[in-house]
Specification:
297 residues, alpha+beta, Endonuclease III, domain 1, 5-stranded antiparallel sheet, 7 strands, globular, HhH-GPD_domain, EC 3.2.2.21, DNA damage, DNA-3-methyladenine glycosylase activity
Length: 297
């Protein structure tokens, strides 16, 4: 069965491994997050897990994760694909978050301590591919999550490569278009403004040329500086990408209006005020962000 709950026309899985899920992993909250953002044609989310297409050693395949039973399954011509996928899946679902340490730090703030008691474990959802996440973040600027998902679906429908042999009932039938394709692609008629098209193609060109990468060992300040040097990408988008693509635990989009309103109900903090208050949450500010977003609904 696929993550969307129906059979897919595909070869038998080549490998399955146990993910050793944390005992109190917030399955429902994480799946709900991905379900709202899954890119049609590339990703699918069901009641038990997540499914997507991917490329390994130049060949396409599929992976499926069951977060209730705790396994990863890969369907790929190369049996070593599961070893490639496993660490990325662990980061995708933030399976190794240092819960004890981050709860100890965040719990020093009485406001966050109350939210931790209410919401349990907090995970920062990652991503499979940094460029894919960057495109999704740009598409989501100043519009709803649902609207951004619609735009992503249109982008995939026009420019993605369909996987040979993907059945008509396969929900993850295509590969997300790479940076070199989108850098010069015709993006007119997708519902994007001219400014948004310029931002997407600027991002794609920078990634394709090696001027911007999503290497997780790079300093946060350098990544943010390179992102914000691109037209149409501001501090919020850069920090959001750092949270999810770089797995930067201290990334913090201080300009976020939800964060500025939810921390002190009845008051809208300035970005500077929020930044100052967040210093006590270092080095786990990204987890504070997810906690506050969850509390806001």
């Amino acid at each position: 069965m696929t993550a969307s709950g129906h059979a897919a026309a595909m070869p038998p899985p080549t490998a399955r491994i146990d993910l050793a899920l944390p005992r109190r992993y917030p399955v429902d909250a994480v799946l709900a997050f991905y379900a709202r953002r899954a890119i049609p044609g590339v990703e699918a989310v069901g009641e038990d897990g997540y499914r997507r297409s991917f490329v390994y050693n130049g060949e396409p395949g599929w992976l499926q994760v069951d977060l209730r039973q705790g396994w990863l399954e890969c369907c790929h011509a190369d049996r070593s694909a599961v070893a490639f996928a496993a660490p990325r899946v662990r980061e995708l679902f933030d399976l190794d978050a240092p819960q004890a340490r981050l709860r100890r730090v965040l719990g020093r703030d009485p406001r966050l301590a109350a939210l931790l008691a209410q919401h349990g474990d907090i995970r920062v959802p990652g991503c499979w591919d940094g460029f894919e996440l960057g495109v999704r973040a740009v598409l989501g600027q100043q519009i709803t999550v649902a609207a951004a998902r619609t735009l992503a679906a249109r982008l995939v429908a026009r420019h993605a490569q369909r996987i040979p042999g993907a059945g008509a009932d396969e929900p993850c039938h295509s590969l997300f278009p790479p940076a070199d394709v989108l850098a010069t692609a015709n993006l007119d008629g997708l519902g994007l403004t001219g400014a948004r098209i310029a931002t997407l193609q600027g991002l794609a060109a920078a990634v394709s040329a090696g001027e911007l990468d999503f290497e997780r060992s790079q300093p946060l300040a350098r990544f943010v500086a390179r992102c914000t040097a691109l037209r149409g990408i501001g501090d919020w988008t850069a920090h959001y990408m750092a949270m999810r693509a770089l797995r930067e635990m201290d990334a913090f989009p201080a300009a976020d209006i939800v964060l500025r309103k939810v921390l002190q109900p009845g008051t809208t903090l300035t970005a500077r005020e929020l930044e100052q208050q967040s210093q006590a949450w270092r080095p786990y500010r990204a987890y504070a962000v997810l906690l506050l977003w969850r509390s806001a609904g």
